Amino acid sequence: MSVLSTPSSKARFDLVSALKRALLAALVAFGLFSLMIGVRTHTGSNGALFLEGRPGLLAIMVGIVFVSTLARELILGERQIELRSLVPPALTAPLQILPKLAAPALLVFALIVPIIFYQNRYMLDLGIMILTYVMLGWGLNIVVGLAGLLDLGYVAFYAVGAYSYALLAEHFGFSFWICLPLAGILASFWGIILGFPVLRLRGDYLAIVTMAFGEIIRLVLLNFQTLTHGPDGISGIPRPSFFGLPFNNEPGGFAHTFGLHYSFTHRIVFLYYLILVLALVTNFVTIRLRRLPIGRAWEALREDEIACRSLGINTTNTKLTAFAMGAMFAGFAGSFFATRQGFISPESFTFTESAMVLAIVVLGGMGSQIGVAVAAAVMLGGFELFREFATFRMLVFGLAMVLIMIWRPRGLVATRTPSVFLRSPKEVDAEDVRRARAKSWSWRRARHD
Amino acid sequence: MNAPSATTGNTPMLAVRGVKTYYGNIIALKGIDLDIHAGEIVAMIGANGAGKSTLMMTIFGDPRPREGQVLFEGRDITGMPAHEIARLNIAQSPEGRRIFGRMTVMENLQMGATVTDNAHFEEDLERVFRLFPRLKERVHQRGGTLSGGEQQMLAIGRALMSRPRLLLLDEPSLGLAPLLVKQIFDAIRELNEREKLTVFLVEQNAFHALKLAHRGYVMVNGLITLSGPGRELLQRPEVRAAYLEGGRH
Ligand SMILES: Nc1ncnc2c1ncn2[C@@H]1O[C@H](COP(=O)(O)OP(=O)(O)O)[C@@H](O)[C@H]1O
Ligand SMILES: [Mg+2]
Predict the structure, then answer these.
(1) What number is the ipTM of this complex?
(2) CA-closest residue to ligand 1 atom 24
(3) Does residue A448 lie within any of the structural domains?
């Protein structure tokens, strides 16, 4: 008897639990949707707001959640879904070999973009924007990816860089090429200013304080009217010149000097290559630093602060240099931003920017250079792609991010490349070690001598 | 007293004098006195929460003691920043190994050499590999993927890379199988006998620690209750009752 009845009772039990779960999901959906979908605000003819209830639509949405949850429970039951299988292999396969081939391929592609898209202003602008974020991502990667310091106020240094250039140009008439290093220095100075109070903080607490720092800088820019013109921003920021040759249609301009027909595109292409070079410098410096004691100390700090101290690493200096270096590159990027836009205001430096850059770093795989570049392209490219969806853009975007994080929980490129290699693990001879040493530690030796 | 090579006269290599350490208002060390002479292995045993790690960390600069002094070769190093203490050729392998998980074995060992001169890096590396051949086989493996025993070897190896004159080890046997514990302790003995390295060892594993050590201290609730030659302490009924009977492994 009991043997025979077991299957049916189990099936009944499953139906009940599935119903329960579906009901729960529907309740949650009702809670969420009642404000998002159930009501809508309208502006009446007299300018007053009034609410319109949409119970029908709400019921349909909640119904969809209920039915789909029920279906999922009944079809899959207790079986676990392999979430990774949701991403088609055709999409993941090329990305497996990505790290090896991607770097040279991407670089070549980045170099020829202005040639391919010479006639396409939109693509050039998109390219410039992506490269700006690649650079910001690489800069923040020093702080978050290498040193493991969660910085949610990175945009502050971007703003410092932009305003440094704008104000120095406005008041002293300095050119872009003089302001660029100054902006970097000023931003890294502010990086150290932020670094001091947060020396003892880690994780969540650090995140909160850095986020507040970002907001403070923005509010200062907004309210320090006499210096920054407040919400009106600064306009008429000088455009960069080609090492002294302005991009205009006059004798002595870039086009005339090189015997070209004047075109507006010259400047765009120049800006493109400018940010490409700036980004590549950021990348190059980071890669070099990673092999030096300071870069190694950053990574060790990310892994374990107490161990660092007991090995004789000055964690205070290590943290401050990480903040300063990261901020410096944001400062460079900021002054590039100012010269490209010709106009800046505090609105360009909201928390959203910090979040965006952080998302790029996390998505890219915390510490991976190529990962950050790919993530910036994917995110900003995706943003543009989904522009059609208007209000649903963020939704689609969020979904895409969730899927990526399910598929690659540690970022697109999660493998960390060691900074020292020996020929073969089994036969470490002194020669190998010497070479590895000479390569990576020569800087320190030089400093000690 | 009858320490094997008390050739340095009367000044101990490390002296702890009346140290009291607090966490907020809670007292963790209630006045500790301790001497470590050059060439000795000194063990500190005590139950979980006795204050052993606190003592180790106090010696290393953080937390600072509220009272008392830590002297290294007669020099007052109380509350000196940890990274400066490391420069005095004192190395510490903190509790829980704390190796750098995402870095390779090789990189971990390089981090250990932070405070030393580069000139003898290869030599020091060979020395660590001779002591723990297992590490040599795994130079490119990420630290986090090593087994517990290998991680402990790496933690000790990393500390040795700084050419310490005094090595502080906090519970090197923690969470290791008996065979591995023996291996680690043999390595410590070898270091001491062959290179005259001075070792201060903090352990819950009283049997192994006291067998190895020239002298030992017993800590209970932030106070030292017993001290003496290691083998002698092993015979003491109160030590046997509290730390050995039934707890040999
Ligand atoms: N960071 C801390 N803050 C407050 N109390 C602590 C801290 N670390 C240790 N303690 C307390 O100090 C005492 C000694 O701890 P510890 O030195 O870790 O002991 P042991 O290493 O002998 O197991 C314990 O009561 C512990 O709870
Ligand atoms: Mg302890």
Answers:
(1) 0.89
(2) B49
(3) no
